[in-house]
């Protein structure tokens, strides 16, 4: 009976914690693991995927909140353009009531080299990699695809980018049908 009274007397989380959004709580809880995942990436993949410092640089980005298809769904799309003319498209879908990610897509195009996409699907807990090589006529129509093993640093780093995207200040978008490659 004393345990029931103790639980009933609890006022809930401290005011500072209660003021956090679900996305801020999830990011705070997973920050160390996300950073460890980026640190564990091979150097070339780390250079390709780690755009965390650019997520908030208004001179490099354009961020849009896209219309929801379901209740409590938040969809965001971020476009980054770098000095070397490479471009990144980061797209994430999450539940705005819990902060749980449902999908993260990352596509990076590097001029004269090609375009790689990484997609994490929360429903199947699967990460897929796609590659379009560069030809003298532009991107190849032939796409190479492969699965990335669960539990490695790539899926965790990709989800980390999605979590950070949910905290970037974005503009509301009236038309979600406008899509283009990065």
How would you characterize this protein structure?
With 182 residues, the protein is of the alpha+beta class. It has one domain (18-52, 61-172). The chain contains 5 helices and 8 strands, in the order H-H-H-H-E-E-E-E-E-E-E-H-E. It has an 8-stranded mixed sheet with strand order 7-6-5-4-3-2-1-8, with helices on one face. Strand 5 (114-121) and strand 6 form a beta hairpin. Helix 3 packs antiparallel against helix 5 (153-165). The longest helix is centred in the first third of the chain and has 19 residues, at 22-40.
Task: Give the key terms.
disordered N terminus; 8 strands; 182 residues; disordered C terminus; alpha+beta; 8-stranded mixed sheet
Which value, in Å, is the CA radius of gyration? Answer: 19 Å
State the low-pLDDT regions, or none.
1-10, 175-182
DSSP strand content? 35-45%
- Report on the biggest sheet: 8 strands, mixed
The mean pLDDT is 83
- What series of H and E elements makes up the topology? HHHHEEEEEEEHE
Helix count, per DSSP?
5
The share of residues in helices is: 25-40%
């Amino acid at each position: 009976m004393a345990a029931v009274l103790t639980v009933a007397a609890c006022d809930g989380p401290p005011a500072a914690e209660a003021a956090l959004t679900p996305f801020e709580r999830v990011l705070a809880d997973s920050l160390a693991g996300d950073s460890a995942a980026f640190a564990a990436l091979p150097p070339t993949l780390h250079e390709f995927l780690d755009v965390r410092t650019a997520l908030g640089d208004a001179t490099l980005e354009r961020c849009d909140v896209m219309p929801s298809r379901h209740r409590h769904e938040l969809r965001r799309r971020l476009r980054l353009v770098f000095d070397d003319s490479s471009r990144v498209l980061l797209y994430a879908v999450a539940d705005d009531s819990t902060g749980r990610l449902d999908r993260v897509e990352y596509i990076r195009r590097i001029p004269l080299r090609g375009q790689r996409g990484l997609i994490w699907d929360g429903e199947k807990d699967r990460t897929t990699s796609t590659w379009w090589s560069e030809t003298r006529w532009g991107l190849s129509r032939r796409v190479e695809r492969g699965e990335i093993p669960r539990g490695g640093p790539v899926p965790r780093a990709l989800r980390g980018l999605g979590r950070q995207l949910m905290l970037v200040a974005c503009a509301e978008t009236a038309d979600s049908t406008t899509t283009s490659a990065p």
